[in-house]
Each structure stands twice: as structure tokens, then as C-alpha cells.
Amino acid sequence: MAVTDQASRPSQRPAAERSSPAPPRRKRQLTIRRGLGVLAFLAPALVFVVIFTYYPLVRGSEMAFKQWNLYDLRNTPFVGLANFKTLLANPTFYTVLLHSVVWVVGSIVPQLLIGFGLALLLRRHFRFRGIYQALVFFPWAVSGFLIGILFRWMFNGEFGVFNDLLRKAGLIDTNIAWLADPTLAMFSVIVANVWYGVTFFTIMILAALQSVPDETLEAAALDGANKVQTLFHIMIPFIRTTLLLTVLLRVIWVFNFPEIIYGMTGGGPAEQTHIVTSWMINFTQAGDYGLASALGLIVVAVLVLFTTFYLLALRDRDA
Amino acid sequence: MIDKTTVPGRVVRVALLALWMVITLFPLYWIVVTSFKEPGAIAAFPLRYLPHPWSLENYASLFSKSDFGVYLSNSLLVSLSAAAVGTLISLLSAYVLARFEFRGKGPLLLAFLVTQMIPAFIALGPLYLLMVNLQLVDRKGGLVLLYIAMCIPFCTIMLRGFFENVPDALEEAAMVDGCSRLTALFRVIVPVMTPGIMAAFIFNFVNCWNELFLSVTLMNSDSNKTIPTALNGFISSFNIEWGPMAAASVLTIVPTMVMFALASRWIVQGLTSGAVKG
Questions:
Q1: What is the pLDDT of residues A134-154, one digit of tens each?
Q2: With the C-alpha atoms ordered A88, A93, A94, A100, is the resulting torsion angle positive or negative?
């Protein structure tokens, strides 16, 4: 089901832990009695996840190979790869795939840079830091859909506040129809996504930076390293694992994040802001879960391929 | 980098922090201002950066023309109960995953992680049918069950990180003193982990509160709708009434904001330590 609303943040260990492993925690070996205990503790979680996540997931994957329409449930024959063929024969498929790449790269690069900068600024304690963080992390508590609506209102060509501000600043004379022009519309949805996603990078990088030992930084300062050198030769290598994993997760997650687009442009104008997953909504709304599931499986395949190459490329560079 | 110790460094630092704060808060500010404008003043020129006069009409029409109060209480009920049960169940599984070695533990963690990466729509159709079979379509209880399942994987991973920060010795001592494992967990460890548990709970609450596609698919009668479904109803018609929409947005954001404000220290602390330890 993977309704990854806010963030997916799986395990990762700071570089510190890997370079100097602590003695392994003593884990109890299992006896049968303990095994039953473990099972009892895990059972509720397993029951929920199996029934409401994995079972629908498996059935959904099965639907990809069937003609399966919500409004024609009596007639759901197995059709092999027909759904996939339909998708691959549709030129829009390639357009939305390309848009997905633009959406992911255009969102992640600014998010990473701003998030990193903000994390550096927040690294040391200052007065009101707690309040500052609470305020600045707030976009994270708002749903993507609602963010889409907020920005749709602000980017409105007639009475949107962005046009008004730009006019007041003397930068434009006539209003810009942000969401009516394909290129500008893509730019606008990306702006909304950057605004939303910076927080996640800030939190992750801030957490990682706090694991850099002060002694290391002091030693670098004693050796005469300036701020830039410290950043690139000490801090970034130290938190490299966190950085790379965060980027990987975010790529996967932003790829699968249609809510902002759904709320802001609905994929328009003329499907020019659709990414793969927002396009998929059209199929589910038409009840065609066969096509939607086939598209979903293609998404999974693309992401698995990407992850594999990403991790392989990293390993090569390490070797 | 900006040197904190020199005066220009401090100025740049404060300026950058202030700039980002303005960028972050402006959309919120704008929607709040819009929600308090008179309906006629919303699209009037020149744009006003403060409502003049202040008006509660948008809020009034939200409650008179739609059952927004019902949606609000539905959302609160569903999100609070799902987040509470989800956190409790995750607490148990996270505890076991942090404290024991057993075969299948790696794959289990992986299975939890994978749920975070698969597009929601693959499961939407089968989930709908499943809920039809269980006779849980358009029932708040059904949505709660789905949301619990949605909370568990990530919440388990997050809480497991917190457990690893708590020494084993704590509950071992309690068990030597005669507590069972379950009592030791709730009497000794849970109090120590309160910040992490609160962070997890609020995280779950926010996720459930904001969830859109499941609720739109499953909840169709007016008395059972939650807020995201109602908002979705606002935009699916071609003409958006921006006044009530802005008021609805504000009311939607307020509960999560209040939660954040009450627990911001725990959240940031909890999430950062959880994220690192994972």
C-alpha cells in the first residue's frame, strides 16, 4: 500500500559507527519459549501488514496481467502483457516518464542544497533555535495535496500573490499565467515541491552533522583548515553514507509522490505536468485497475533498476 | 561557510535564517489572510496583504453549506485512534526487533522498508475489493484499520532506533526483580522513551490526518467523510470557491500545527536521533 505520506526514512548508520564499530550488543539466543514470546510481540504488526499491505499488493500485481475494470467486474480475463503493450504504445507514457525525471532532478537538487545549507546554519546551538526549527519544519506537517492547493492559489495568473509581488518588485509588467504555460507550470509544481521537501533533507543532514565529533573539527582547525576545507574534507566525507542514502530514498519517494501535482495542476495544462504516478490516477479514476497496476509495476521496475545502478556506481567509486 | 564568531558572519547567518523563515511561512500567512477576507475582496485589486475588514464569512459558509464540523471530528477520531493503536503495535514489534536476534529478522525489516517504496495505486483496487468483502467500505472503523496498517512499517523502524538507544540493563534489572517482559517494557522502558514514542505518535497522526487517496476511495457518505476527502470534493468541481477553501485549509492545518507546537522539541530530537540510529 505504501502510502508514504510524509517521509520514508529507513535504517542507516552514521559513518562513525561503521569506521569504529562498537562491541556488538549482546543479543539473547532464542529458545522455543522465547521464540513464542517474540512471535506474540510481532503478531499484531504482521497481521496488519500482511492483510492490508502485502495481500493487496500481490493481488494488485496480478491485476496488471488482467483486463480489470471496476465497472465491469464480471469480465476480468487474463490478458498477459496486453496492458503493458497498451501503455508502451501510448506516446503520453514517454512524456510522463521524461517529466518524472525532470520532476525528480529539479526537486531533489535544490532541496539537497538548501537543506544542507540550513542544516549547517542550525548545527550549533543558538537562542530560539527550538522555536525556529518548529516554525521552519512546518511544511512537513501539511499534506502534499493541500500544498498543491496553496500554491495553486498563489500561482494563480489573475489574482495570485506571486504575480503581485513580482510586479511590486518591478520585475514584471504583465501578469504571468504560471499554470497555463507548460514549462512554467512544471517550474511551479517543482517550486512547491522544493518548498515542501527541504525540511526532510535538513532533518537528516542535521542529525548526521551532529554525529561529527567536535574533536575532529577542532583538530582540523588546529591544522589550519579553513571553513570550506573543513566542509569538503571533513564534514561531507563523514556524513557521506547518510547523504547518499537520503538522496536515494528521496529519489524513490519523490518519483512516487503525485499529491502536489494532483492538487496544483491535476497534470495540466494538456498533461504537461503529469509524472508517472499522477498520470496513474487517471486510470484508477476511470476504474481501469489493470492498466494502473501495469503502470505501477513499471514504476517498481524503473526504481529497482535505478537503485541497483546507483548502488553499483557508488561501490565502484569506493573500490 | 559562515563564521559564527565574526560580526559579518553572524549578520549573514541571521539574514539567511530569516530569509528561509519568510519563505517557509509566507504560504501559510497568505492562506490565513485569504481565509479572513470578505468573499468579494479575495480576487479584488490591488491585493491586500491584510484583510480589511476582517471577516468570518468564509468560515461560516464552510460550516453552513457543508458538514465541515462532521468531517473535522471524523478526521480527529480516525487519525487519533489509528495513530494510537498503530504506535502501540509498532512499539511491541520494534522492541522485539531491537532486542532479539532471530532468523528472518533481516527479511522482515526489508519487508517493512519495501512498503515505503511501492506506489500506492497498485494496491488501491484490491484494497477496495477487500474492504467490500469485509463490509468495511464507508465505515470509519475500516479506515482506522487501513491507517493502522499504513503506520506500522515506518513507525516500527523508527521506534526500533529509539530502543537501541536504551540500555538492555534497564529491563533486565526489572525482570530480575520479578517483572514479566511485558510489564518491564511498559513500566520501565516506555517512560524512558516517552519523547521518541510521542514523536512516533505525532508522526503517525500527521500521516493519517493527511492521507488522501484511501479515504477518497473508501469514504463516500457525507457523515463518514474525513477532511482530505472533503477538500478533494472542493477542487473536483471546476470552479473553486477560494474563500471557503482557504478557511478549510486553515482548519486542516491547525491541528497538525498545534501538535507540532506542543511537541516540537521531542519531534526534532526524536526524529534526529531515530534517523541516525535507524
A1: 888 889 889 999 999 999 999
A2: negative
- Between chain A and chain B, how many beta carbons pairs sit less than 8 Å apart? 316
Measured distance CA(B121)–CA(B136) in Å, rounded? 19
Q: What angle do CA B1, B2, B8 make, to 5 degrees?
A: 145
Q: Are residues B220 and B98 in the same domain?
A: yes
Residues B255 and B134 placed together within one structural domain of the fold: yes
Tell me the CA end-to-end span of chain B in Å, nearest whole number: 29
Q: Is residue B255, in this structure, part of any structural domain at all?
A: yes
Q: B207 and B142 in one domain?
A: yes
> For A270, left (φ over 0), alpha (ψ -120 to 50), or beta?
left
**Are B100 and B20 in a shared domain?**
no
Rounded to a whole number of angstroms, the distance from the CA of B224 to the nearest CA of chain A is 20
A 293-312 near B (Cβ less than 8 A): 293, 295-297, 299-300, 303
H or E, element range at A154:
helix A144-154
Per-position DSSP letters for B71-113, written without gaps between them: HHHHHHHHHHHHHHHHHHHHHHHHHHHHHB--TTHHHHHHHHH
Q: Which three cell numbers stand for residue B88?
A: 502501540
| Residue A196 near residue A178 (C-beta atoms within 8 A) | no
Domain that holds residue B259: 67-274
Q: How far apart are CA A48 and CA A45, in angstroms?
A: 5
Tens-binned pLDDT, residue by residue, of chain A (319 aa)? 333 333 334 444 444 444 444 445 555 555 777 778 889 999 999 999 999 999 999 999 999 999 988 888 888 899 999 999 999 999 999 999 999 999 999 999 999 999 999 999 998 888 888 888 888 888 988 999 999 999 999 999 888 999 999 999 999 989 999 999 999 999 999 999 999 999 989 988 988 888 788 888 888 888 888 888 989 998 999 888 889 988 998 999 999 999 999 999 999 898 899 999 999 999 988 889 999 999 999 998 998 899 899 989 888 776 5
Distance of CA B71 to the CA centre of its chain: 17
Give the Cα separation of A136 and B241 in Å (integer): 29
CA atoms within 13 A on the CB side of B247: 24
Instruction: Please tell me the CATH code under which domain A90-316 is placed.
Output: 1.10.3720.10
A-contacting residues of B 138-157, CB under 8 Å?
Answer: 145-146, 148-150, 152-154, 156-157
